[in-house]
Structure formats: C-alpha cells, structure tokens
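## retry 2 of 3
previous attempt timed out at serialization; input unchanged, resubmitting
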Amino acid sequence: MTFTLHVDGPAWREHTSSVRDALRSAIRGDTGMSRLGDLVPVAKGNGYGLGLRRLAAEATRLGVDRLAVGTVFEIAEVAEAFHGEILVMSPWDPRDTVAAARWRNIDSSAVAARVIRTISDAETAKRAPLELPPGSRIVIEGITSMRRFGMLENELLSVVGAQAMQSALAQGRLHIEGLALHLPLAMPEVHHVSATKLPRGTSTRVIEVQGWAKTWRAALEELLRAEVPVSENANSLWVSHLTDDELTSLRGLEPDVAVNARVGTRLWLGDGQTLSARGTILAVHPVGRRFAVGYRQRKASSDGLLLVVGGGTSHGVAMAAPTPAASLRQRAIAAGTGALEATGRSRSPFQWGDKLLWFAEPPHMQVSMLWLPDSVLREGLANGLRNPAVGDTLDCRVRHTTALFDAVLDDA
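## retry succeeded, writing output
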C-alpha cells in the first residue's frame, strides 16, 4: 500500500466508548433514561479519514439509535452498516436541484422511513407540506450565533403556526422530530436573554440554547392549543459543539427536554495516538549537491537521498484549510511558512525518525519527492535508525478531514 491509515483498533474503540459514556452521563445524569437524549455520531465527508462505512459500523457497535450525515449523498453508504435513524444535517431545499434528484431516489428506497430531513429556511418550510412525501420526518433548525443555516425565532413560530404545516402534522403527512441548533466552537456573545435566573458561570452557548429551548417550547404549545398531536420526540434538541459540562448545565436548566448531542471530531479523532498516517517509500535515489530532480528540476542543496513516497495531493497531503491565525504565535508561524514557500522551500508532513523532511518540489498527485540530506541521515543512523529502503513507511502528519487513504488498516 502507498498511503495508508493505521488504526490501533482496541485503543480507538476504547476511546469512542469512553466518549459515548461521558456524553450519556452528561445528558442523562444518574437516571440513565434514553428518553432524555443520547449521543448522535456524525459520519460525513470522507468519514474523518476512516471512511463512512467504518464509522457507521462503529456507531452500530456503540449501541446508538441515531446517526447524522452531512448531506443526502451520504445516506446510502452509511445505511448499509447502520440500521437506525439517519439525520441529514444539511438543509433540505428543492431549489438545490441536484440534491432534490437524490432525495427522490432516497424517498423511493427502503431507507426512506429511517431518514430525518433538516429544514432551515422559512420559504422552504412553506413548501414542505406540499412537496414532501407522506410520512416525512423533519427537524426545524434555528439560526444560532454560528450564522450558517436556520430560521429566526419569529420565522420559526410562523412556520409552526401556519395552517398548511398544522394540517400536515395533524394528518400524519409530516412528523416533527425536534429543533436543530449548530453552535460555534468559539464562545459566542449572548443572542438570547433567558427569563430564568441562571447559575453563575453559565456559558453563553448554554444561554443561547436555553433561549431557543424556550422558543421551541412555545412553538409546541401553539400546536397543542391548535389540537395538533405531537410525538414525544418533538420535544427534542439536536445540538452540536456543547461540552460535557455544558450538557450537564443544560440538563439542569431544561430537565424535560431530550438533548441529542451530535459529535464527530471528538468522537472519531479525539485520541490522535490511535491513528497513524503513513506513506510507503517507493524509490530511493542517491543524489549529490546541485543534482536536479523533478518536474521543475530543482537542485539539491547537499549530498543525500531523494525519497519517493506514496501520498500526494489526491490523498490530501499538504492540502490544508486556511489557518484561523487567532493568536500572535499562529500568525508568526503562518508568516514564516509563507516566507519559506516564497523562496521555493516547503517542509513536508513526512518524517524520518523525529525529523520532518523537506519537499524536493510540491507534491505530485499520488507521490511526494523528499530530500534526506546526508547530515540528517548520519544523525538518524547514529540514533539507531536504518537506511531508508523501498517498502519502509514514513509517518505523515495529515489533516484527517481532508485525507483520502488507499487503505485503512485496522489492528483489531
């Protein structure tokens, strides 16, 4: 294999189980009652480098009833290994014609009854009673300080109070499964002011969620006044990015609301020591100083070895999201990296021993060419390493959410 992810299976599964247990404790307290909510694993995109099917199978092992995916295009793959309910977090909107075509396929498949749509737009919500197939299940999304998708409070109340929506709910053509809230990672400013006297130190994320919980309670009460039956599941919040302490705090403030915590990165990638990305050495070439190599014929700055290693741009090697540069240190690192790249030098994410190697030139589509100078080689050999050879592997620091591996090797 040329670019692989090695998983310490027992340790990784111990980690995912510990996250599940910690979240359940935070959500349910000492009661252990599932009606109070649960962990909802998120399996989306490239499956956090592990693959969607693997995450779906792990969700089954964890014993959860619900799994969240990013888009409608991911449903079919996870449904093969997970047989519970599947929440699609990206908004359903028939104006997205490509997604709408895939939704029609899903609606005519055996998995349709297990799928929950997210509706995040008031105009789309008005079309839902007319355009969704009978029996469709939905969550309504409120807009948080994240400001990505969602309705304002007055829009949400208007949607739930609309005659067409209430008729669809009363006739069982639609089923509401709760309110979705996607919160920012950074602590937001307060966008909701709760009438409840809050304990000192309550985070602004919790304050924001509690404000939305009040709004959602008012929406459900409006349905009850209109004699529209709602299921127990309707009194649920589907939240992202609350800590265990915040979930515990929310449980104390809203003990009657079921809280479903959607978790991805912490669950799958929270213990980085259980995951190791590796590139296989495919060729080793001795080079002398000023020896030219590669597409761009860049010259070696010293004697040494040229290593050709599996892992290139198609695998996500050296592909990175823009840095947030929130601190002076991060800005200094970003500036220094940019200055080096401007001179044609770029450090690779591959390492030999404890040394990160330099790219000989930008990575190719499936391989990277790396310099191993004589000075680094001699130091490594003196410290017990052996000469690099074809078939050996180099550890690679890679962003798992942008990585695509030739194989995932599970040491189960």
